[in-house]
Amino acid sequence: MIIIRPLKGTAINHNLTSHSITPIMTTQQPDYSVNLNVQTKFIFSTSGSASSILKHNDSIRKLGLNLVYFTIADEVTPEGYAALLRSPIARGAAVTGRGGLKSTIIPFLDEVEPLALKTLAVNTIVNNNGKIYGYNSDAIGLKTALTKGIEASGLDIQSAVIYGNGGVSGVAFHVLLELGIRVTMVGRNPDRVQQKKKELGIEHIAHFNGPYDLVVDATPISSDPDFLNAPGLAGLLDGCKMVFCHNMPEKDNKTNYLEQYCEENKLYFIPGKWMYNAQLAKQYRLLFEGYLKPDGSPISEQDVLETWKVGK
Question: Is 212 helix (H, G, I), strand (E, B) or coil?
Fold first, then answer.
């Protein structure tokens, strides 16, 4: 059994026997324990979110699977993360956009699906017999979120601007074009934005000026109370009808200042959790492929939705 207390650790005790390893980290947080055996596989994540350890392991446990979820708070290199995920203890991983990892890890994977190559964004990696495969479940998540928001709001969305050049920006460009929405991309660093366009092969698509109906924030800036000081962002928000925010500081009980701004200025706000919920269902369907519930039945996408209480 491993006992996890997921925040500040001070003392670590390793109790080693011929049958088990029990690391115990002393913190101010309640214990979280999982049972391990030689068949246990790990699902890793680079989110660094302490709350994720409890949420994901609780859900995996309810499904009766011999899997353990663990998130890494430290920065990782793409080569190092790929090596970890190719190891025998790994089933796979979630990849966040921190440090551009969704794109930089691609050369270190054995195979990558066409959508992930097109958008230059891998957010799900699966280890099958020592080979690691890259997928993108963000696209279905974002398309679901935007479609839901546009239909619920009744707004006519004809144009959009993506603010930022991280891993989700390529996904957003692809999805918006697929939805028939005219789109352009800007950011705090124009040179990086131009480089991103070249990498995505969209530099030939002409930029156009706003106002824009929809602003897609593809940065983590919404957790900053001074987010309006970000170069160019205030001008994009002025005159728009709708805002999508990819960042979810509320997951860790932090304030989403962009959401507050939208409420105060009567802008329709699409929360990142709408995207997260839909992409999570696809992500775990990939990670759980070949696994069975205790009754011998396969795990469906509906099982994931219900177990993770998605949408609630």
Answer: coil
Total residue count of the chain as it appears in this document: 312
Instruction: Please give the class, per CATH, of domain 139-270.
Output: alpha beta
> E-assigned strands of 145-262?
159-163, 182-186, 214-217, 242-245
Q: Are 106 and 120 in contact (CB under 8 A)?
A: yes
Element spanning 193, H or E: helix 190-200
Architecture of domain 37-136+276-307: 3-Layer(aba) Sandwich (3.40)
Q: Are 176 and 153 in contact (CB under 8 A)?
A: no
Beta-carbon count within 10 A of 290 CB: 10
Let me know if the fold of 37-136+276-307 is the same as that of 139-270.
yes
- Ramachandran assignment for 127, one of left (phi > 0), alpha (psi -120 to 50 degrees), beta (any other): beta
Q: Given strand 268-270, what is the order of strands in its sheet?
A: 182-186, 159-163, 214-217, 242-245, 268-270
| Catalytic hit among 8, 62, 102, 254 | 102
Domain residues of the chain, as ranges? 37-136+276-307, 139-270
Active site residue 102: yes
Upper half-sphere CA count for residue 302 (Cβ side, 13 Å): 2
Nearest Cα residue to 276 out of 249, 302, 246: 246
Q: What string of pLDDT tens digits covers the 312 residues of the chain?
A: 444 444 333 332 333 233 333 333 333 345 667 778 889 999 999 987 777 888 899 999 999 999 999 998 888 999 999 999 999 999 999 998 788 899 999 999 999 999 999 999 999 999 999 999 999 999 999 999 999 999 999 999 999 999 998 778 999 999 999 999 999 999 988 999 999 999 899 989 999 999 999 999 999 899 999 999 999 999 999 999 999 999 888 877 889 999 999 999 999 999 999 998 889 999 999 999 999 999 999 998 889 989 988 654
CA distance 257 to 227: 8
